[in-house]
Amino acid sequence: MRPNGRHTAGARQLSTLRVWAMGLLLLSAVAISPTTAKAAPSQTAAVATTHVYLLRGVLNIFSLGLDTIGARLQAQGIPVTVANFVSWSSLADEAAAAYRAGRLKTIILVGHSSGATALPDMIAKLNQLGVPVKLAIGLDSVFKTKLSTGAERYINIYIGDGPGEPVRAAAGFRGKLDNVDVRGTGVGHISIDKNEAIQRRVIAEIDAAIMRSRVPAAPVAEPRTPRQARSAAATAPARN
Questions:
Q1: Domains of the chain (ranges, CATH numbers)
Q2: Residues 145-160, buried b or exposed e (16+ Cβ, 10 A)?
Q3: pLDDT in tens, 165-215
């Protein structure tokens, strides 16, 4: 018996559809696999164990640029907490608990206005709890601010002819302190956290800190190096 013409045509169409389906699957695999291959496991792990705490200033309404920074960091997969500066102590307790539990490795702090003024207190409490701070960035701290204990790096971005103040390092301070005066750039105390260039710098510094957290710690320095470092630290406050 000869096969039915309609049955033969239907079989051919089904076979063609199967070929197209297999082809689409192969194309999908080719398109997806390069993106997956580019994801670095070490980078993903570093981001997963990082948390950025962003502290707003007075009244919780003048530092909304920190919300924008937080949203951009979250888009990169970086966990963030945005809160008013009065929460700094409870946030330090929260971060310390996560650090001791092994869920958190890299702690980064950002504050604007009174939120920037609170950063040294939060750093000091974390250090007392045995928790290191990788990076802290203050945006135009409004009161005289002194670092008695340290983050690995502290960046104070302030407006020299405005209400902002340089941050000073107390005797025995460990870490790197950078005071960055942005007077003449058109930013003001209320707008510094919302300025696009400032936001890009903050995010770039955070990304760099996360990258540094992937690098093994440097070997212990020779005995003469600490003596030089102590001498430099002792003279640093006088220059500020």
A1: 42-215+229-239 (3.40.50.1820)
A2: bebebbbbbbbbbbbe
A3: 888 888 878 889 999 999 999 999 999 999 999 999 999 999 999 999 886
